[in-house]
Amino acid sequence: MTVSLSGCGMLGGSDSTSSTGPGGLEKTVIKVAIMSTIDTAPFRLAQDAGYFKNEGLTVEATEAPTGQVALTKLIGGEADISYSSYTPFFAAKSKDTADIRLVADASSAAPKSTAVVALPTSQVKSVPDLAGKKIGITAPNTMSDTLTKSVMKDHGVDFSTVKWVPVLLPNVAASLKNGDIDAAFLTEPFITQSAKAVGSVPVADTGTGSTQDFPTAGYGALGKFTTENPRTVAAFQRAMLKATRDAADRAKIEPLMVKYAKVDPDTAARTTLLTFQSTLDARRLQRVPDLMLQMGAITTKVDAAAMIVPQVNG
């Protein structure tokens, strides 16, 4: 299931039963590590609108500031399912850190929903100007630098000269203003927030060229959990599928951005949304580990299809 939204405008072991829950769920209470990013809007909708509850699930959200933290919570047993950009999932799989299984899709990069930005007074005016500069990213070998490197390569720019500076997304505007970085990768609603705060402007749309409609994030679990709880996983997928469909109505999404991402209504209205996804497609998803391998984020090839659990039908 794919819902594309764009416009002028981040979201924010358990008690178990033995096949006694609705639909014979193996586990009726699950913990999900979630980030306050815009592509978690369908998850928030499924929570607030009772879609999980209708499937017999009680979903407890545990907040994570980054995808790597969400993955750490998953591996450490603090979460049954974790939301993250795809790069930590594939990196963990490539290093045999954990038996990661992919449960549901979340988003792909729509035009103008992810970008490299700079101040109007910066020397960075276009992609070639990024060579040798200090670029803010969430962390090395993540979606932020992987997409940026891909765009630079598309333009024949040597990204090996770049100094990659870890900066949390909410702190990018201040880092640009203070001169700590020359440019930064941002996703919405931070593109809109930074523009309002310090006047930053996009210098590269990272959802174009080789990374057009590029899968950006999804929901993963450990193989042990998905093997032992197939009906619970399917219930989660059904709720997310319905929520992703309903996310086509932007009027249902903007209040969630205000509530969970703590943005003001004007920013929510101006934010360009990513393309919401739900059902995983192996051929499409394979683009992620292939690009990571090409950009040096991983050193061994990963088969995305082998990581995907059975998907529910729409």
Describe the structure.
The chain is of the alpha/beta class and 314 residues long. The protein has 2 domains: 2-109 and 213-307, Periplasmic binding protein-like II (D-Maltodextrin-Binding Protein, domain 2, 3-Layer(aba) Sandwich); 114-211, 3-Layer(aba) Sandwich (D-Maltodextrin-Binding Protein, domain 2). The protein is built from 13 helices and 12 strands. A 7-stranded mixed beta sheet has the order 1-12-5-11-4-2-3. α5 links the parallel β7 and β8. The longest helix has 17 residues, at 230-246. The chain is globular, with a radius of gyration of 19 Å. The relative contact order is 0.23.
Explain briefly what this protein structure is.
By secondary structure, this protein is α/β, with parallel strands linked by helices.
